[in-house]
Write a structure and sequence with these properties.
single chain, about 160 residues, alpha/beta, Rossmann fold, four-stranded parallel sheet, two-stranded antiparallel ribbon, 5 helices, 6 strands, about 45% helix, globular, binds ligand LW54GNZ2, binds the ligand CC(=O)[C@@H](O)COP(=O)(O)O, transferase, LS, EC 2.5.1.78, LS/RS
């Protein structure tokens, strides 16, 4: 499988602009906190590495990935940011609950970004098991949080270039 061969966080194919002009929010789900904490660390550190000021990064948590949409909406309704990064980890269980959460979160984050015309980044792992999640939160397949942060910078930069 293609994924097995590469880090999903390899951004050598593109140049990430400076993050210094932009304000960011990071909304992190507390479910699977060991995983989402690593995603958050990856996202935060990449933003700062790319020049974002710590005072320009708003960080909040929500109970679970299902609440990421509400958390992003609260941020975008109350704070002026150039992008919001939504981080979560949904791990499949024994019932269809996984499918409902993943679908709701994907659609919700899409819609909240469109509602406010602000990039809302889907940094949510949707895995079959804990091992796959660990591999994508700083393991052999990179860090989804880093990817989400890089995407946030690129989208904020795109929007500013079009204004
Ligand atoms: N099972 C997982 C959940 N479940 C909780 C939901 O996200 C939500 O908080 C609850 O349904 C109340 O609305 N959340 C995750 O982020 N990851 C999971 O694996
Ligand atoms: C994704 C989930 O909500 C999952 O953890 C729930 O597990 P189960 O389907 O066994 O109730």
């Amino acid at each position: 499988m293609a994924t097995q061969l590469k880090s999903l966080s390899d951004f050598s194919h593109t140049t990430i602009p400076s993050a210094s002009p932009y304000r960011f929010a990071i909304v992190t789900a507390q479910w699977n906190a060991d995983i989402t904490g690593a995603l958050y660390q990856g996202a935060y550190e990449l933003l700062v590495k790319q020049g974002a000021s710590p005072e320009n990064i708003i960080s909040v948590t929500v109970p679970g990935s299902f609440e990421l949409t509400s958390g992003a909406d609260m941020i975008l309704n109350n704070k002026k940011v150039d992008a919001v990064i939504c981080l979560g980890c949904v791990i499949k269980g024994d019932t269809p609950h996984f499918e409902y959460i993943c679908s709701a979160v994907a659609h919700g984050i899409t819609n909240v970004g469109l509602k406010y015309n602000i990039p809302a980044i889907f940094g949510v792992l949707t895995t079959n098991n804990q091992e796959q999640a660990l591999e994508r939160a700083g393991g052999k397949h990179g860090n989804k949080g880093e990817e989400a942060a890089a995407t946030a910078i690129l989208m904020a930069d795109l929007q500013r270039s079009l204004c």
